[in-house]
Amino acid sequence: MEFGLLDISVFLLFIIVVVGTSMYKSRKVETGENFFLASRGLIWPLIGLSLIAANISTEQFVGMSGQSAGSVGLEILKIIMTIVKNLNFILSVLKQVDIEYIK
Questions:
Q1: Tens digits of residue pLDDT in 5-64
Q2: Which of 18, 54, 15, 20 is nearest to 36 (CA)?
Q3: Which of 23, 24, 52, 95 lies at 20 to 30 Å from 69 by C-alpha?
Q4: Residue 101 CA, distance from chain mean position
């Protein structure tokens, strides 16, 4: 995969816009509390959405889906293997048992 001039230009423009906007918006910030807590001016839905956005990512969605499918698949496989193991055990015991002794 090669990056062309357009790719690099768009990336650099994006970085410049993000850094510039950040510096412009934070020029009035005096303390860490103002910076991290937005001067305590946010309403609760924005704080909640911020927490969810920070903790949920695509990797987690894919991981949770894979984990749930994997655990269901493992449970089914476990049931099938238990049945096969038990049948194998019963058949091996029946082969070794003397039928005359049982009668």
A1: 999 999 999 999 999 998 888 787 777 777 666 677 778 788 778 777 777 776 676 676
A2: 54
A3: 52
A4: 60
